[in-house]
Amino acid sequence: MALTDTTKPAPPRHIAIIMDGNGRWAKKRGLPRTAGHAAGAESFRRIANYCRTLGVEYLTVYAFSTENWKRSADEVAGIMRLLRRYLEEALQDMEKNKVRFRFFGDLSKLSPDLQKLCHDAENRSTDYDVQVNFCLNYGGRDEIVQAARRFAQEVAAGERQPEELTEELLGGYLYSANVPDPELIIRPSGELRTSNFLLWQSAYSEYVFMNVLWPDFGPEDLDKAIEEYHRRNRRFGGT
Ligand code: IPE
Ligand code: IPE
Ligand code: MG
What we know:
Helix content: 40-55%
CATH class: Alpha Beta
Strand order of the largest sheet: 3-4-2-1-5-6
Distance between the termini: 36 Å
CATH topology: Undecaprenyl pyrophosphate synthetase
Bound molecules: 3-methylbut-3-enyl trihydrogen diphosphate, magnesium ion
Shape: globular
Largest sheet: 6 strands, parallel
CATH superfamily: Decaprenyl diphosphate synthase-like
Number of domains: 1
């Protein structure tokens, strides 16, 4: 037993997941879409825990995009209600679960109570094994725009020169500052697109697309994605 465990290659340091397919999962069961989101939240809990046991350092999850406001007011309210409940519980369990939270996205568009929960979760320091980056009202393009805006403001204020801008410096203005790029990005649900997720950070990420719907995504699916990742030949433009 121990032998197989020790021969297993180390998992990626940073895994990112587009948590997609909640609506279809609910539809298949004749349930409202919100029931799918509730099941998706459970799936997230399970996978975050599993990542911790695997020794993954960073888990970035796409929970709500800058485009998801296009959905019905009912569905958006349902998602926000679930997020609130999830974060309230997460705040209580942070120490036990050894997890630290960071939020990627424009939180200013969220309700004040939800914003407060996010800030409380970020500011609660705890001994942690895994950092969860929760993407909320997140868009990859929006992230780059806000980074460009901040840099431009510093130039206008005379604090920076335009020619100082490098890839590294720009990276420091992104929500993901100080977080290494994800080695592996997983999209369940069968869709083959990024939907505005981590546009900058995914330059050399390995994508694994899977046919399972997010609420059905279990530890065995994560194992499969990691195995697929280990079969890839990452060249980074070299030979
Ligand atoms: C992902 O599931 C959750 C969010 C985007 C908030 P979906 O709600 O997009 O589920 P499908 O894609 O309609 O099945
Ligand atoms: C991406 O899923 C966003 C999240 C999972 C939060 P979508 O369901 O919004 O993406 P599209 O509309 O299929 O591209
Ligand atoms: Mg979807």
